[in-house]
Structure formats: structure tokens, C-alpha cells
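Annex B, item 7. Sequence and C-alpha cells for protein A, then protein B.
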Amino acid sequence: MRQIRTAVPETVDRAIHKALALVPADRFSSASGFADALIGSGPAASTTVAAPAGRTHEARRRTGMLVALGALAVIGLFVGIRRLGSTPTLRQTGALGARETVVLADFVNRTRDSTLAATLTDAFRVDLGQSDAVQLVEPEQVASTLTQMQRIAEGPLDLRSAREVAQRQGVKAVVTGEIGSAGAGYVLSAAVVNAADGRALTAVRTTAADDRHLIGALDELSARLRERIGESLSRVRSTPPLEQVTTGSLEALRKYSAALRAGWEAADWERAIVLLQEATAIDTSFAMGYQLTAVAIGNSGGALSRQIGPQTSAYLHRNRLPAFERYQVTSYYQILVEGDMERAIEAARLGFEEDRTRGARRLGSLLGRAGRCEEADSLFEIAIEKNQPWNVAWYLGKAGCALRRGQVAVAKTTLARLERAIPRSPYIKVIEARLWAARGELDSAIEVLSELRSKETGNPRVPDFAALLQARASEGRGRITDAERYLHEHAAASQARRLPANQLVDAVRLAELALRYHRRPDQAIRTVQQALRQVPLDSLPPVDRPYLAVARFWAEVGRPAEARRLVAAYERAVPEGVRRGQGGAQAAVTATLALAEHRPTDAITAARTWNRSWDENLPTTSGLYELAQAFEQAGEPDSAMAAYRQLVDAPGYGSLEAASYAFAPAWRRLAELYEERGQRAEGIDAYGRFAALWKDADPSLQPAVREVRQRMAALAGEH
């Protein structure tokens, strides 16, 4: 039973017990509120304290304040002791930062005064905005997200919309409020709601006697909510933010974001395609969903015809998009469908001006692909700074640019950064293999790729891609039997994945091996003819038909009429935009055909176009071997030697993307030209490079290695 001294008025007793309440939200929110209660003028007063005779109102007020100050000193001690034994807030434990981010929904109005809800929401926003307990998503961010949701950004933000905004922003919770009538007064309530499932995490309530007490009641409501918000949010699981792209469907956006992670975290682009098809079925106008579908199909090794359809759908819906997304869609369309690199870069640059972080991804990727690596490098860094699973693409771009410029150390550092940021990414082994190849250590590259294939059996695209790289590296080392085995494995995988165009290209590659190393043109021709019977060109969509790969083979095997027939069919069947984007492949056919017909001038022009098919500032090794052969046909040995030398000295020597078939014959022919000129030291070195490259070549190629070593010995004995 509570004992009260008779000298202590009941009003003061009640005020002190309220100040010492166990639940923080039940205490006074300020010292002035406590003082008002002590002198009987605050909401806590229920009795009147009589003043001694002769005391004025001012004296009574001073007495009350003195009592309050004295009581506060005692209360401070008890509150401090009580807090030591209470559950610490999330901020105190350090589990959350000082200001947890939340979305504020507009107050729900259940009174006759239609202006109250908006007024209270604005006041509540100001109060919460000054708190160190929470941080509100800015109204501009809310409006931008509502635009992506294809909803009007004006008017009240209801709880349902606020929850969706929070989920798209990766925010845990929503704060919502309500005001209702209670006789002449009002009832105010506020709650923190889990954005994911709508569950109320905590709620507070207070009353106001009339209009004059509304703001005071709102202050009390806010104070109670701020005290409780830390512990409540500690129980909410953090979820990664959804991508900021335009769709009216939250479920479609979830599938889109999941597809990005499936593709870049696990390289599971097949799973990504399924998720994206589900997303675009939900929202049939989801432009960015269609675009990512096209990207996913391309990354999975899917046919070009399957990519063009969704990318065209994205482009047709572009006018409904905000500026940044519109430029992104336009950029992808220009490169994939129109084959126009410069216009694609121009659109990507406009997107970068709208959003530097997201825009850096696309612009950097295109500039890197175009060989403008110095400019692309800084953009890759901007994109990498925003730590996301799909940053692996920008690490790949940065490492690729470094290798093209011969900066092996930079590529190695980039690989180390990728391993720290995304340690489980299967693309780590791809970069590692390219690093070994850039150092000329093709055996190590093959070993890394074998490890990659053994670990990624659940994802067909990665081992298939690795098999192609292994075939190229093995060809460079003269191990043609191994190269053939890898190509057969890739062809079998292509058949299993229903990629008939890939089967045809693999048959052409096998035929080229028979032609170049086994000197069996008849066998090579039979291989291609059999593949064409199994997969006729006209059974494929026009853009998927490998006209150029087959035409180049016919030119190389000495059947120029067949090559010309296929080139003509290609020009008739394939749209101009797609052909524009395949300029390098067209130049390769033209150069090979001109060499076969002994037209060196035309071959030189075409080989140079092939070599600089994207950018003149950073030529690749492609076409350099054919350029050197054309110069030899033209009777220009000095130019031929320069082209051979450029090939073998190119940045990233031995790169898996380079003309792996060309390095060994280029070293041998260069050595022969040095020998003819009497440059013994240079000849010995070039012969030695050839012998080292093919030291473990197939037995059928070992006579060539022995002959080269004999010539080296002969040159050395002429001193």
C-alpha cells in the first residue's frame, strides 16, 4: 500500500510517480510538462492544491517550480538507476546506426476537419526529422520511387504505397499515424510497421482535450514513438534494396532484382531468364525487364534472335520511362539491334549525366568494348564503389581493359579486389585464366579453366565458355588433339542446350584444325558439309545463321565461289542494323577471300579494318596474321615483318581472345625472314619462341619443332 506524507499534495505525488514510471513512454516528455503537473495546470492534474492564505498566484507558481526542480534532482538519480537495469536500445548496443531510415506515411484522418491529417503529417515530419532516433526518406526520393511505380506522386501517401516505397528503397519500416475524434477532443496514434509484411512493430497513443492541445499531444506521441523505435526495429531482418527501375508491380520488381543477383552472383543466367519472363508476364510494359531479359539471354550464350525480341519490346516502351532509364534502353537497342556503337555511346553518356553512379556502368562497358579504355577505367571505378553483386561485370571490364593495354599488374590487382568483394563469383577463375594467358603461360590458363569447369557443373554457360577458351589455349600450344576434344565437348553441350547455330560454328572450328594442322582439306570439307546437312542454314532464324563463319572457312579451304555465295545470302537475309554491328566478322571474310584469290591490296585493306573494327586507338591482335600474309603476297617483306612483330608483341600476349592459331606460325615465319636477312640473333630468338610454344605439341607436329631447333643450331654455328 502506498504511503503519502500529508504534507505532499496528491497532485505532486502523482506527478512524481508518473516521472518515475517503469515504461519510458509513460513518463513526462519534458521538464515543463512535469512542472505544469506539479502546480495542477498540466494534463496529469486531477486535484487542486490550495494555496496558503495571503499567497499570490505568482508565489504559488514559484513554489511549484521549486518543488519540481527539487523533485527532478531526485528523479534524475532514480531514472539513472532504473535505466541501468533496463533493456538497452538498439542504438546503445550499436546494432543499428544513430538514425534508422524509415518512410513516413501520411496521417489517416477520421475527423470532420479535412485539413487536420495533412497538418499533423507535416508537423510529425518536422519533429521526426530533428530526431537522432530515425532518418526519414526524403520526399523527393519518395516522389521518384512513386514515379517508378507508375503512380501519381501528388496527394497523400497511404500505408500500402509507403510500404512499397520502403521495400523498393531497401528500408525496413514505415511510420504511420491516425487522428480520430473523441467528444470535443481527439485521439492520436502512431505505429512503426514492418515494410515487408505489414506487421505493427510498436504503437503509441495519446489524447488532446481540444484543438489547442493538438500540437502538444503530437509532441508527446512523437517522443513516445522515438523511445520505442530502436528496440522494435532491431527485430526486423534487413533485406537488400530492390533495383530502382520503373514498374507498377512490386512483385515484378522483386523478380527483376532476384534475376540480377542470380546472373551476377552465381552466373546462373538461365534462372535469371525464367525470373525475368515471369516479371514481364506480370507487367507487360516493364521496359527494363525486357531489356535485362535480352542481356541475360546474351550472357547465357543464347541466340541473337532471342535477344532482339525483348530488346525491341523494351525500346517500344521507352517513352513511358524516366530520362535515365530511357537512355539506357536506347543505348542497348542501338548496339544490339542497330549495330551503331557511336549512337549507343552517345545515349549512354546522356544517361551518365542523369545518374552518375548507375550511368557509369553502361558508359564504361561500352567504352571498354570500343577500346577506349583510359576513359572507361574511371567509370568502372565509379560503378564498383556502389557495392552490389553485379559489380563483377565492372571488375571484368576493368581487368579486360588492363590486359588489352598490357597492364598485367593492374589486372592482377583488380582480380584481388574482386576476390575480396565477391569471393564466390565464378568469374574470378575467368580473369585468372586470362592473366595466365597474358603472361604467355597457357598451360596454367588451361588448368584454371579445368578447375572452373569441374566446379560449375550446375551452370551450363560457365563450363561451356571455359571449354572454348581451353580449345583456343590448347591450339596455341600445338596440342590439337586436346583442342578437338574441348570443341567436341562444347558441341555436345550446344546440342543439349538446343543451340544449333553453335553446333555449326563448332564444326567449322574443327574443320579449321584439320585444315591448318593435319593438312587434310578433304576431311575439313566433309566435316562442314555434314554439319550443314544436320543443321541447314535456312532452318535457323536469319540473324542466327553463321553465314560469315562458314564463308570464311570456304575461302580458307580454297572455294571462293562458295564463300561469295554465302556472303550474298547474308546481305540479303540479315537486317542492316545487325550487319552493321558485325563489321569485324565481315572484314575477316573479305580479307581471307582476298588472300585466297591473290588480291593483296584488297586483303591489306580488309585486314586493317578487321584489326580496327571498333577503335583505332587500341587495335587487337585480330587480323594481324592475315595482314602480314597480305604484305608478303604484295612483295613487301618489311611491312610483313612489322605486322608479324606487332602480333607477337601485342599487349596481353597469348590472350585467350586473340588469334591463338596465329602465334606459333607468326614466330616461325618471322624467324625465317630474320634468317633470310642475316639477322642471326633475332632469328635464333624467334625460332626459340616457336620451339618453346610447341615443345609439348602433338606428335604429328613435333617434326616441325625438330626442324626449327636444327635451324637454331645452324644459325648459332655460323658465328
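Protein B:
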Amino acid sequence: MPGTKPITVTSHVARDFLQNAAYFNTMAKVVWEYLANSLDAAKEGVPAVVAAEVTSNYATISDNGCGMSRERLRNFFQMHGENVQRRRGKRVRGRFGTGKCAAFGLASELRIDTIQAGLRNVVRLRRNDIQQARSGDPFPVQDVVVNEPTDKDDGTIVEIRRFNIRRPNVDRVISYVERHLSRHHQRAHVTINGHECKFEEPPFVERFESLPPPEVVQHTGEVKLVVKVSPVPLNDDVRGIDVLSHGIWHETTLAGIERHERANYIFGEIDVPILEDGEWPIPAFDNTRNNTLNRQNPVVVVLLGWLSEELERIRLDLVEKERQRRESQAAKRLAKEAQKIANVLNEDFAQQEMELELTRRVSKRSGGRSVREILDEHGELWPGGGNQPTPWQQTGSPHDSGTRGTLGGDGDTPRPGPTARPGDEPGARKSTTSGRRKRRRAVFSIDYENVTAERPRSRYESDTKSIFINLDHPQIASAYEAGGRRTQARPFREICYEVAGVEYAIALPHEKAEKDELYNASDALYDVRDTINRVTRRFMQILNP
């Protein structure tokens, strides 16, 4: 109708800004966002240098990039604005124009100090300024320095202050950044709190290349899948196929086989340019900063379906090879030897747990009781004050002085108090059940693996208390050759026993530290040496029956 005001789409700028900031919910994501901006802003032909400092009070990200003019700063603070580098034809990571709000996912103040072409500009934005823009109108960014002449080099310093979180985990930030740098294909020198960030690709023992069939090519274009097989299980940050587009990383995936056997040995990459170049009603990406492709996009659906088939084929082959390895005679002999080693370590560990429990009981006792007073005639703990069952439990009435004919009260004839009878009250490790001793179940396990000569000769998985011996390590491989390539040969057995004993000696202080808050570094050093001497003597009794 004439005079009717048209309906238009509007946005509440402040709410939009803070809602997008909520996607940056970890310190690692926040630091990486600005650090990646610095990498994107690197000068042509000049290696990017970025230094980040992360503390409990602030985080700064400094670079030697192009810097920003005042006009560029204005564009930087435009929500969902077009990426200037993309407009110039440069392949960069920024896509949604929301990264400038990253600081407010965890903090309340953002300061940008930037120099370009001899002019310095400094601006500041605070959460209060954003929240006061209740009407939805644009909110101002405070000018601190405007076009100040300077002879300093171009570059930008991003400063984030007034965190709303506790102390940040810097190690996690470094790990996150290093993993992302491995997918960032440009020369760069990046440090965090003085640590130079580098990512080393895991070693691999097999490599496969696959090309998609014609029915997949018509959706994805001509692409090549590279799959590598690690000799050891990989953690969540490393395993999986990196999906790139023009070298820009968008997701790492195992395409639905994540929980299947041997899937955690697989990693690799595939570059799919059409993901960046194509246009669809349903986009291939989203702006949640979770580094995932949009499963509703038709090309993504076809791509992940094909990846799932290829990875499952490789996984099944790995499972079959592992089955054949375990069924071989050599593997069976190694398994028997591993059990002998494990028996020694578990017997030793049981004794260490008993001694640790005794120490804990003594440290918690009230009064002047000695260790002798809390043991029975067999060296078992009396009940009370511990956290593991004993073969005894308390019985009888509570202690009191008492009188004849009454319970409790004052008197001159003490009445007997609690005594002990067979039971299972907390106090020490449980060693009897119904009058018969019960053997403690195994805790540590030993296994062998071929994980290349470059890897350590052994490793320890604390979650499963598993010690793995690397058969490819030069020292162990040499002993195998010296023994005529026989697993039952004395040189090979001796080195495997020694390796397992050392790994156990190093692992034991970690186990003790979890149970004893007073355990310190000097105790650990002493215990490592003492444990090696103790278990190797026991090993010799097996090797020399």
C-alpha cells in the first residue's frame, strides 16, 4: 500500500558480536584466531614472524606483517565483512568476518596497536561498550592513537586483557597452535612464551594413494587421497585425514570409523579445491569454529562417503595383519616372555603399594603410634584410616572407662573396647577372602611392537599401565640379530627385560605421585635407581633358573 514502510532485515550488532564471540570458548582458539590473522597478513616474499605471550592476566600476539591503516582498521571491525586478502585474490583462512570478536569469548578488553606506511593507529574495545549498545545500533571503538607518524616497521600487536577465566593452560595452547601450523602452508616463525612452535609429522610404516571413481569425481573434482599408517596409536589431535582446500584446512576426519579397531593408526590428507571454489544453497562450511564441514552440503556428503569406504578398506587390512602377527609362533613366544616380565613387575608393584599405604597411614595417624603398632603379626595393617580393605574389621563396644552395671560413665573398672575379627574394613590391600589368601590381579602388562628405528625403545601408557617394547630400536634389533634372530635367545631376552625394567622404574614415580601428595622429585630419582636394581635382580632369577 502507498506509504507503507517496507520490511527489511536488520541485525542487533552488539548481540551478534557477542554471540559470535561465544564460539571462541578456549584460550587455544582465541590465540590461534589472531595468530592466524597475522599469518594471513604476512608480507609477500617475507617469512612471517609471530610472537605470542599468554599469561593469567593478558595475551599478546605480535607480528611483522603488513599492518593496518585506519581505513583497514575500520574494515577489520565490520562484522561479516569481506576479507580484504580474499578480495585481492590471496588464499587465506578467514571467511566469515567474525574473528575480530574472538577476544570477547574469554576476556573483556581488546587493544590493537598497528603500524602501516609510517603511521601508527591504536584502538581499544571493551565489553561494557558493546553491552551498552542495547538498541542494536553500531557501537564505537575507542581511538587511542590516530595516524601518529613513526619510523618503526610495519606490523600489528593484538592485546587481550581482563580474562574471565582462571589460569590458562599454555601447553594446550602450544599443542593446538602447532597442530594448526602443520596445515598452514607458508614459511613462518611462531613462538609462544618463548617456545618455538613446530609440528613433527608422526612416523609411518605404510603409505597409500587413492583416486576417486568417476561417479565421485563429478562431485569432488580430480583429487588424491594420501593415507599413512602409524606404527603406534595416535591421539585425537593427530589421527584422521586432513581435508584441505587450496591448502587451507577445514576438518580432520575418519569418516565414521573412529571407534573401530586400528582406526587410530590412520592419518593423511586430501585437498579438495571445489570446497573453496564452489557455491551451493547449503554451504560447505559453518562459522562455529569447530573445524568441521557441513554434512548437509552435497559435495561434503559424497566426499565423506568415499573417504569412509577407502579408510575402512585400509583399516580391515590392518586388522588382518595384526591378527596374523599375533598368531605367529614368534608372537606367541614373545607373549609368554612378556607375561614373565609382567609377573615380576606386578609382584613388585603390589609391594610398593603396600609400602605406600603404610606411609600414608603413618602420616595420618594421631598421637605417637609407631609403624609397628598399626601392623599385625603377619605385617598386615590393622583396620581404620586407610582406603583399601584389610583382612580384619573392628568389633565390640566403643572404649570407655565404665563402671560395673552401667555402660559408659565414670568408674574405676575399664571395660574392654573394640577388638578385631576377620573382615574387610579399609586399611590395607585385601589379601584374604573367607580365610584364604587371594592373589592380587595383574596391573602392568608388556607388549612388543614394530614402530621404526627412530622411535624410543619403549613407551608407557598410564591409562592401561601398558609397557610397549620397540623391536625396531637399534639396540633391541641388534640383540635380536646377535641371538640368531631367535626370540628365545639370551641376548634378546636380556635387553627386553632390561628395557621393561627401566620403563617400569620411570613409570612407578608417576603412579606414586598420584597417591602421595608429599612425593617429590628427589624421592623419584632415588626410587628410579632403587627400582632398577630391585627388578633386574629378580629378572636374573628368571634368566638363570
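Comment on protein B: The radius of gyration is 32 Å.
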